[in-house]
Amino acid sequence: MKNSRLILFLLIVVAVNGLFSWLTNLPQNAGPDVPDGKISSFSYAPFREGQSPLSRKFPRVDQIDEDLRLLAGETYSIRTYSSMDGMEEVPGIARKYGLKVIQGAWIGGTAKNNEAEVKQLIRLANEYPDVITRVIVGNEVLLRGEQKPNQLIHYIRQVKQAIKQPVSYADVWSFYLRYPEVVQELDYYTVHILPYWEDEPLKIDETTARVEENYSKIRDAFPAKPILIGETGWPSAGRQRGGALPGVVNEAKFIRSLVQLANKNGFDYNIVEAFNQPWKSKLEGVVGANWGVYSADRERVFPLTGHVIDNPKWSKRLLFTSFLTLLVLGVCLKSVLELTQLHQLVFLGFTQLLSALLVNQMDNYWYTSYSLIERFQVLFIGGLSLLLGAAILQRTLELFSDKLTQITGLWIRYLVLAFVAVALYKSQSLAMSGRYLSFPYPLTSVPVIGIIGFMLIRYFEKGHGLATALEFNDLFGSRVFSMGLTKAISVALAILGVILIGIETVFVLQSANYETAYPNFFARMYEVFLVTINYNQLLGWAMLIGALIIRIPLRISAFVLAFMLVEIILGEAYAFTTLHDFIDMYPGLFERFWQGFYYTITNTQLLLWVASVLILAVTLWDYEEQQLHSH
Fold first, then answer.
1. Are 211 and 258 in contact (CB under 8 A)?
2. Which of 60, 198, 202, 491 gets the most CB atoms within 10 Å of its CB?
3. Backbone dihedral angles phi then psi of residue 140, each to the nearest 5 degrees
């Protein structure tokens, strides 16, 4: 009888989770279908996981062939950004599949490489005049500050004199307005209009109007020649900017609405991009790697026709979540059978919730990790989440039976401190260099929801007011490690942190060509040092922070967490005030800061991170530490 009732309760909580998952992942209308299911043109970079122009690991010819065979059914044309390092093979393969090519030459800060790119571009344009319909000399090189306008003009003229196809230069629309001397050299204008990266961030429903507005600015300023919207698109994953929220459905909505706008107005456009590019995460975080219609594994992110599901894998997540819940029930079956019916239902519901958070965390972060060292971090923090979730569930069973043990509280205390160390590391990364870093609130979902859930259960079990509900000693217990053991653990964490920083430094050095970019050894190591601090997907510095916080009073850690949040919010708001277009739109400093502050405090991802860190801080602050040491 008891087993039957328990199975019924298990089925109920799984069904509730399944219903919630289904309702939040219903197919959505993403706008009118793309006519014939084909885009006018896609940006094409062939790099797959483990390949990168930064580390000079390039795709094979057969991989490029496979890509273009796939894209032939999706588009009429592709745009490339380089004519070397394997990209010289693209026109010949494109001819085989009936694709046209907008061939690019990559212009950077090295004259020798630039000359080689220009020479190769000229050769390809003359060799494949039936495939290469136009060319682009340089991509956002003025935006990056790697060339002066006069030198860029020299390369443009060099190409124009040697080929018959129209020649252009590609940059964000506002830079076209700043450098008319470059614009007048071009046969057509290639402007990048990326509403996600606009200095004033936009909600998805506002983006089409902004594209049309910015296109009109270029047309009004330079009415004589054709315009190609050389890059436009929307990310499917990554950090939110103001109201600009990445997502699969939002990417589909943007592309479909853009196609409708282009067809209505006769705009020439190119979507960025065909395939997700993992290597871009080194430069632009998760958001930079996820602009593709296809994943890096060449799986479709969303369809160009029909309804779109934000998370097509929700049923698999539900399956794994249910398996974890069943596993916990199997381990704790004897204790659960001794509970009242209400307690059994609450325990199974709490288990299902924490299991779902863990599965979602692991799946999301595994998908957006692109190297062994990044996936090691995912597994490490996932392991911490698993241990902490198990400890909180054990504490819940102890609460129901009124048999709180010191050992469970000890585990929870130090596992929570591990997450505090991770939160401090990630918060300082966001505060120092947050433009491309995702807000990592899913990483702390298990400890945060676990703490909230336990305290709510405790309140209904024992509480008679809010003050009583916020007594965290029942969660942590009262024991701590002895001073000697604490010191030993701290030293071990510090040593491990230093070793990991060394390994991570080597990893960073190998992930890009730092020797060329920074010939001076000390300049190179300083740059790598900054990268390891701000990378946000490493563990060495988190280990060092952990070595410190287990030896200091909890309230100091709580204060530092709160201070970091203030720094993140002010830093995010201040970052808006320094953007060129934002300054033009809001000339007054106070008005500009207030507008930036508004975009900051309406960023739901940022607010979720703030809430998560505050809950950790309150937990540490309110805990009344008693000096009863565990030996």
1. yes
2. 198
3. 55, 30
